[in-house]
Amino acid sequence: MTGRENLLLIGDLYGLPRRVVRARAGEVLDRFSLTDAGGKVVKTYSGGMRRRIDLAVSLIAHPSVLFLDEPTTGPDPRSRVEL
Q: What residues form the membrane-spanning segments (predicted)?
């Protein structure tokens, strides 16, 4: 599955309207600098990109609270600063 497909699947599982999920997927892909990689299969992502898509997936439903366990483990130094 691609990064965008993963986001759409999780949005569907949350029961969010499809149009909302599509718009939100674009937002989080852009926020985590994954817009260009959104159409690529996730298993081809680097470790840092996988961590960023994990965070994007966790934010797709606009949670009011999100507990993260070491979110900066894995990404390269530039991505850590970005996160």
A: none
- With H, G, I as helix, E, B as strand and everything else as coil, classify residue 2: strand
b/e map 42-58, b = 16+ CB within 10 Å: beebeebbbbbbbbbbe
Q: What pLDDT digit, counting tens, does each position of 49-61 carry?
A: 888 899 899 999 9
Domain of 73, in residue numbers:
3-82
If one counts every other C-beta atom within 10 angstroms of the C-beta of residue 29, the result is: 21
- Per residue in 28-51, pLDDT (tens digit) is 999 988 999 999 999 999 888 888
